[in-house]
Design a protein that fits this description.
By secondary structure, this protein is mainly alpha-helical. It has one domain. The chain contains three helices and no strands. The longest helix is centred in the N-terminal third of the chain and has 19 residues. This is DUF2304 domain-containing protein.
Length: 64
């Protein structure tokens, strides 16, 4: 558990640095995808899923 959290934090830091530096290259995209896979298998995944579902409900209820 501690190792996967460390990997997730490292990948998150790398993704933020890559996105702030400007161009997103293939290697940068791979880091982002790897971060997604690690987040999906972590204990934070249900919270992220619930947050995205709540956001989708709010957006779908907005009338133009």
């Amino acid at each position: 558990m501690a190792i996967s959290i460390s990997v997730v934090l490292l990948l998150l830091i790398l993704a933020v640095v890559f996105l702030r530096s400007g161009g997103l290259r293939i290697s940068h995209a791979l880091v982002c995808v790897t971060l997604g896979f690690y987040l999906a298998s972590s204990s934070v995944a249900p919270t992220i899923s619930e947050g995205l579902a709540a956001t989708a409900d709010v957006v779908s209820s907005v009338r133009p």
